[in-house]
Model the fold of this input.
Amino acid sequence: MTEYIAPVRDLRFALCELDGFEALRALPAFAEATPELVEQVLDEAGRLAAREIAPFNRSGDEEGAHFENGVVRAAEGFADAYRRFVEGGWAGLDLEPEHGGQGLPRALATATGEMWNAANMAFALCPLLTHGAAELIGRHGNAEQKALYGEKLVSGEWTGTMCMTEPQAGSDVGAARTRARPENGHYRLSGTKIFITYGDHDMAENIVHLVLARTPGAPEGARGLSLFVVPKFLPDVDGRPGTRNDIRTVSIEHKLGVRASPTCTLAFGDGEGAIGTLIGEENRGIQAMFTMMNSARLAVGLQGVAIAERAYQQALAFARERRQGRRLTDGAPAVIIDHPDVRRMLMTMKAHVEAMRALALRVAIDIDLAAHHDDAETRARRQRRVDLLIPVVKAYCSDTGFAVASLGVQIHGGMGYIEETGAAQHLRDARIAMIYEGTNGIQALDLAGRKLLGDKGAAARAYLADVEVLEEQLGAAGLDAIRAPLARARETLARASDWLIETWAGAPGDAAAGASDYLRLFGLVASGAMMGESALAAARRLAEGGADDAFYHAKLATARFHAATILPGATALLDPIRAGSDGLDALD
Amino acid sequence: MTEYIAPVRDLRFALCELDGFEALRALPAFAEATPELVEQVLDEAGRLAAREIAPFNRSGDEEGAHFENGVVRAAEGFADAYRRFVEGGWAGLDLEPEHGGQGLPRALATATGEMWNAANMAFALCPLLTHGAAELIGRHGNAEQKALYGEKLVSGEWTGTMCMTEPQAGSDVGAARTRARPENGHYRLSGTKIFITYGDHDMAENIVHLVLARTPGAPEGARGLSLFVVPKFLPDVDGRPGTRNDIRTVSIEHKLGVRASPTCTLAFGDGEGAIGTLIGEENRGIQAMFTMMNSARLAVGLQGVAIAERAYQQALAFARERRQGRRLTDGAPAVIIDHPDVRRMLMTMKAHVEAMRALALRVAIDIDLAAHHDDAETRARRQRRVDLLIPVVKAYCSDTGFAVASLGVQIHGGMGYIEETGAAQHLRDARIAMIYEGTNGIQALDLAGRKLLGDKGAAARAYLADVEVLEEQLGAAGLDAIRAPLARARETLARASDWLIETWAGAPGDAAAGASDYLRLFGLVASGAMMGESALAAARRLAEGGADDAFYHAKLATARFHAATILPGATALLDPIRAGSDGLDALD
Done:
């Protein structure tokens, strides 16, 4: 496996050189987030990712997580890497200073998150879940919960999980049956949860489970679910891990990828019931979980970006070294990057990576603005944009990450099919991001059914108007080769949006059948728009003169490539979106 | 893993109820291939595939092939299944009767081949390679070689391999270095071959390697390669396996998929040299191999069809059983097949499977006609069609097979990522077909650079003219919903073909950069045309009245679905094809 090289330059570009960063820096909360600080943080994170985390990616995949005698043990190197990660203060980079976090922008944490995942996705899942748990307790926990668990999670000293899924309750979370009965100021939980990422391990001295369960007499469905903090070890009077709670690790899964990430089945309450405390109010658990959903979905979309970057680096290195055949131009012996078809695949990978990266970071900036802007209307507007684009980022970037990883395998030829090469691991790892945190089909329904329909297209139209403004800027800058395909794609999206809004009322089945293609179309426009912005920024820098000309020239060429070869796919999606249920009856 | 159900009804439809079968039956060679015989053969093959071969697919994947003490041992059940396969006479179904074959059409053998591969692709690779070796010796071997090896390979009693690849010679076969020096009427070979499928195993008492090597003083490159028969055991005077030849199994690969198929590194001539005999003339080895190329590439494309069918069956069974959520229509508890997005995915799988199956079988029929028609002009015309479509079948069906297997994983949700479910195995198995037997990039260059350019578009134009005739028939039959998208796709293909022909001369790099998208476009048109033919045939049957109405209604609906949701992707490929090298310099 090729070494991981942290893509700090392009992260810095997407974070600091596109629209949005100035607005972020204007926030009092982030006054200290200068480009210099950003660069320093990215450099340090990149070093940690490349030197301490990436080296255990391939070995972790080979070894997998261990389950012996009821206990999970992490793959070699993982515990040490995690200790360094915690010591570096990375776990709470963007969390509230009053809980021990560093209070830096979510956008910056997102950029570091790409690097953790690119270095070692199976490893990165542990801090990813822990971050979510820390954020949730910080937002919804009571003072005691914050004191007992909050800071330990913010620092990463203890890790966190989300326990939602049960055998009969996958996408349909509301079908969960785990029970919680009140007893002396706490609750006793019993039930079985499956697919619990890092549900058990030996990388930290305690694990804090956030568990959805049903109290006595609670209503059916999601409206009857409450959320509980259920630690592996109950904190003692000093807040240290004390008595073992009634939680048993039943098994871990044998998975296609992210094999070093233990995916656990946990049995709560084999005995008297696992002791937990309620977060917020009874029957409001799903709402608390939902406030975390945008974070979690952004993080999963980002995994698509991360694996795509890693797969690209590996394929590029191989293509530069592998000698095979002769050049079309002069018949000289070739390395395979000389072959136009290989080059096209590499450029497709690169263009997708850069477009997705810019998109994910833009949404992260919007999350920061929605949380911290001093103008309520701006906060609300940014939040609407976030809500609209989150399912797009989650599904489009995970779909595309998998496709890019597959191109990476292809460039390696036969070597790509051999596990030792490492290209196949990226393909296997990438596949899960399309499934968890709401399958991509669920994302599509969220986008088309809730986000688009919920405000009758207002947020989508506001977004499309912004893209139109961008098109004008591209035209004015002489970048018509990008403007024209973007305009065609944007017009297609507008028509598809109108059709969906019209169709939901009378024929929801027809609308729902087109939802996945609609999301794909939205993703093409959104990533194409980010490449348009990138091209504008690059052209501006080149006009100003100065350093890094090669970087900006490459950025312009990559944006042109994206517009010429990737964006045209958008127009072809209109007919499939509008095909409705035609032919679906062939399954009866 | 769901049981495999042999899709005999649809195989019979694609084989006997579309255009082409009548022409096949009119050949004296195949007079006995009645629809009744075809049905009987398919039924029997389906039983063997489902009962004796499929049960070892999942276990074979888990267990893998074994390599211990220099010897390869097949996974449990494989040797028995292979014995039954050989006893049933399946190995030589379509091979020449004078060599012990049954002389049935290639098209029928192709239909059975889909079932072997769907049942257990890792298993099916052994007869696939053996069939190729038998055919090659039958065509190019001398009398002694035919006597010693031909019949044993036709019966499957011995198995065969193709030894082409070396560490420095992958796609560039001409870079091979294995040497062969003449000695007393035979040759002594020395060199290392890699990626040798079933290069060693214990399922048959002898293995016949076909090895490309270089004789003393041979020219550089592919023109200096000769082909040799090099058996694992040299036949004794009675033709039984005698002395062990100087061939050592160095290792087997740890692969992403087809794990029960041993992929070997073989060292020829550690000692005095492995004894082999020359096939045909010196320096003509690559030509002999090339005459087998169409067979091998059809077989690999067929693997894409096979895995797609298997993945579809598994996803369909899951979607019918898995309860989750509520129906959009009436709010009743749903099985997931009720959800429009899941249904759309299943229909996409089904439509791809049926379109690809019909396409692969059509090409197989053309191979039969090209070989056996009594009119030389017809033979030549059919051969041109085969040559044109073979790279399309190989690459489009393997690409699509992988995409379909990925949809299969997606429909399973989290369960799809767990290896025990079996959906992930299909994804892993399918991935190799895009790589071996010439990567899909090589197929694209073969199509765009050799097949299209070689006759300045004559064969492609003849094909497009046939599609136009089909469009007229569709229009006349009132099937405009299929005709119109097919016409748009066909026109796009015509324009892309013209552009490629014009561009190769002056800017081969631009043309080559668009080759993969061109092949994908060709595949969409070709598979769309087969669904158009299928719809016509189904409409005809329904008009005639009679049995099987449900089947024909479903076929029509599937064809409409293909035209409405898959064919529209064709038009979007024109711009990417013509994008040329724009932006490719961003990699420098």
Remarks:
- The mean pLDDT of chain B is 96.
- Chain B touches chain A through 94 residues (CB under 8 Å).
- The CA atoms of residues 449 and 521 of chain B lie 15 Å apart.
